[in-house]
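Figure 6 in text form: structure in, sequence out.
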């Protein structure tokens, strides 16, 4: 599986962005998908995850109520809608795929895409 994230950019605090992650392959719906982020000088951290059929989602406490993960299996794409952005959301955002739902750690994800930079100005 190859993953390509896009949609990052510069936005003011309080604004919104939608990230997209396009996946190759015909078995996209068999993978749980997740977004991680890595801020400068910090470790990569889990942001949001979604099961293969989109029946289950999970979020980091820091983004609950502001971010929404979704997927379109017909388009092999997963999205991250980010609202009410804060300067502390500034990071490189990565999408990742895993055969298992719920094991949201950097060590367990099977595939990673290149990141897209999100910068939130105050």
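Output sequence:
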């Amino acid at each position: 599986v190859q993953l390509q994230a896009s949609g990052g950019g510069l936005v003011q605090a309080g604004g919104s962005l939608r990230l997209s992650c396009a996946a190759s392959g015909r078995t996209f719906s068999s993978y749980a998908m997740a977004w991680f982020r890595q801020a400068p000088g910090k470790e990569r951290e889990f942001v949001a995850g979604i099961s293969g059929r989109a029946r289950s989602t999970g979020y980091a406490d820091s983004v609950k109520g502001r971010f929404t993960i979704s997927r379109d299996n017909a388009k092999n794409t997963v999205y991250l809608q980010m609202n009410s952005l804060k300067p502390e959301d500034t990071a490189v955002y990565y999408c990742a795929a895993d055969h298992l739902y719920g094991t949201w750690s950097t060590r367990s994800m099977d595939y990673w895409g290149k990141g897209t930079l999100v910068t939130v100005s105050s």
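Caption detail: The first strand starts at residue 3 and ends at 6.
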